[in-house]
């Protein structure tokens, strides 16, 4: 569905959209990637912002494990957030690989708000596959991919999986 070139093209478009939407407040822009695959995507967007506008936006990674409403098992694996800046007063762009029901985005907002009070929170995703259960909408979408509920969208990234690609699997 998406090759490395398609992912790169989508992230360039998302990066340009972020610059356009925040043109008057670029100095307060920060990127926070939702672990696991949102973090490398946030770094890629940051690299694009640097290349396009010379903007050195701070980047962090957010572990939402303890904020999820679908935890199973006795001992969830907590990876730990790494946000080396104060989010208070910043326009924080949450970055994730796939937007589906909206529950991960809600958990990410909850986790982020525990760290401070951003001026605004925006959501950027590589793939929006629909099927919302919560009233959440991405501000920046790389690709809209209509799917059936029984299908899954698998995102592979060089940083985590050794290669870039997005595929839809299942019925």
UniProtKB/TrEMBL annotation:
Pfam families: Pribosyltran
One of the protein's GO biological processes: regulation of DNA-templated transcription
Keyword Protein biosynthesis (UniProt): no
Name of the top EC class for this enzyme: transferase
Motif window: PRPP-binding: 92-104
Domain Phosphoribosyltransferase: 11-140
Gene Ontology molecular function: any one: uracil phosphoribosyltransferase activity
Catalytic activity: UMP + diphosphate = 5-phospho-alpha-D-ribose 1-diphosphate + uracil
Keyword ATP-binding: no
Keyword annotations: Glycosyltransferase, Transcription, Transcription regulation, Transferase
InterPro entries: PRTase-like (IPR029057), PRTase_dom (IPR000836), PyrR (IPR023050), PyrR_bifunctional (IPR050137)
UniProt-listed Enzyme Commission number(s): 2.4.2.9
Superkingdom as given in the UniProt entry: Bacteria
Family membership noted in the UniProt record: Belongs to the purine/pyrimidine phosphoribosyltransferase family. PyrR subfamily.
HAMAP family: PyrR (MF_01219)
Annotated function: Regulates the transcription of the pyrimidine nucleotide (pyr) operon in response to exogenous pyrimidines.
Protein's name according to its UniProt entry: Bifunctional protein PyrR
Organism: Rubrobacter tropicus
Protein's gene: pyrR
């Amino acid at each position: 569905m998406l090759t490395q070139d398609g992912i790169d093209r989508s992230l360039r478009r998302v990066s340009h959209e972020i610059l356009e939407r925040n043109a008057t407040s670029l100095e307060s822009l920060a990127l926070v990637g939702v672990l696991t695959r949102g973090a490398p995507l946030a770094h890629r967007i940051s690299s694009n912002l640097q290349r396009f506008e010379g903007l050195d936006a701070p980047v962090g990674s957010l572990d939402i494990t303890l904020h999820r409403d679908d935890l199973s098992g006795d001992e969830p694996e907590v990876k730990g957030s790494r946000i080396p800046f104060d989010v208070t007063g910043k326009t924080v762009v949450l970055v994730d690989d796939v937007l589906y029901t909206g529950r991960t985005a809600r958990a990410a907002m909850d986790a982020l708000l525990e760290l401070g009070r951003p001026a605004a929170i925006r959501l950027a995703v590589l793939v929006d596959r629909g099927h919302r259960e919560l009233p959440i909408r991405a501000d920046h979408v790389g690709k809209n991919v209509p799917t059936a509920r029984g299908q899954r969208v698998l995102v592979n990234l060089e940083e985590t999986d050794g290669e870039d690609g997005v595929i839809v699997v299942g019925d």
